[in-house]
Description:
By secondary structure, the chain is mostly beta strands.
Amino acid sequence: MNTQSPPRFDPTRVPHLLGPFAPVSEEVDVEELEVVGRIPDGLDGMYLRNGPNPRFTPIGSYLYPIDGDGMVHGVRLSGGRARYRNRFVRTPAMAAEEKAGRALWGGLESMVTPDADQVGPLLAGTFKDLPDINVVRHAGRMLALAESACPYRIDAELATLGREDFDGALPAGITAHPKIDPVTGDMVVFCYALEPPYLTWSVIGRDGAVTRGPTPVDGADEPVMIHDMALTGRYVVLVLAPAFFDLRAAAAGGSFLAWRPERGTRVALVPRDGGPVRWAEGEAFWLWHTVNAYDDGVGADSAVVLDYVEWSRLTLGSGGEGNGGGAGEVTGGPARARIDPASGTMSRTLLDDCRVEFPRIDDRLLGRPHRHAAFATGTGRADLLPGEYDAVRWYDTATGASRVWPAGDLAVGEPVFAPEPGSGSEEHGYWLTFATDRTDGTSWFLVFAAEEPESGPVARARVPVRVPLGLHGCWLPSDGG
Length: 481
Ligand SMILES: [Fe+2]
């Protein structure tokens, strides 16, 4: 009999609840931010970013980057002026916790759920919705997205409207990284589950109606975690790394994910026309994020080029999203895979051994060849936590060259591209992100010009409250873009 009690969870010692990651509790409106430099007049719209921000002090456990309640931060730009607002993504579980005045649900790894006496029969024994990873707009819906569950719909003022199951067509939800095809307007999504079917994909048309309900991916016959996907004109690209859900280990107090490198990494090319799935296999690697993908060649056997951020193994928690931290050496960097559906093979090339994450392109090129990609990156300092970056790096895939802007004491987030209005070129536009000074907690909204981003921001808007480091966001031009 095991009489050893598990170590007590102490939230004051969790790095991802401290410093620039520490959650904020206030919902704030600031009508006009102080701007250093000049916000381009043509930038008219809203920049949104989601991220984990527990409403109350966590109990049981805290796993970065998945645990935590969602908080969306928004900067509305118009006429060279910037307005700021932040709001929690209000779930029924959060409402119950607000009524209680404390956390009732434990972190994912603690498996603690409240009983009916605490939260009523509907919420009793349920897992908490965690729409804290990403935020997108499609078919007029603004969605705060969870790792793999129903998203929550929010309005233009960032108020929560409720859980979105797409008129009941996608009851199990979707993952946090859907892909919107800029040509067709379709939003292609996937969902993974612990029970069969383990992996499904669906399509939401440009008018918001589900045109393909959950469709099992043939050959995906075990439960693995898949954080991101890619899309080409022909294929949904799903990378199945050997990160297996292991509930038996979790029940015994271990991790609910097991890394089994001997199983290799498999890539499913799922024809968007519903044809048979094509599989390719290779050595084990892990990816949190794709950069983009596209078809190379014509005809049924055209290859797929997939750009992504490669890690040598799963990194989670203390070795979390986008870091080489944690136990054992982790290597990686921006990478390109060429996947041949005819032979079922893939070749991979590491483009750089630089630590990067949060890759973004001009979203208008999603599914087609892109030239430029931006990443958050590190300058090499040793004290950065997973998810903490102190520079922005831009790669030119045509020349292989990269440009970097070191951010000094600022911790920077994911760079998001805002096109120059009226220009169809990825060369002309702006890169947007939040940054927080790790020495004094001051926060900024940064605007870089795409032509020469390494020169640093052309505008910095001072946010008078701290914006905790977060995850993913988007630029929503006022003209619908
Ligand atoms: Fe992500």
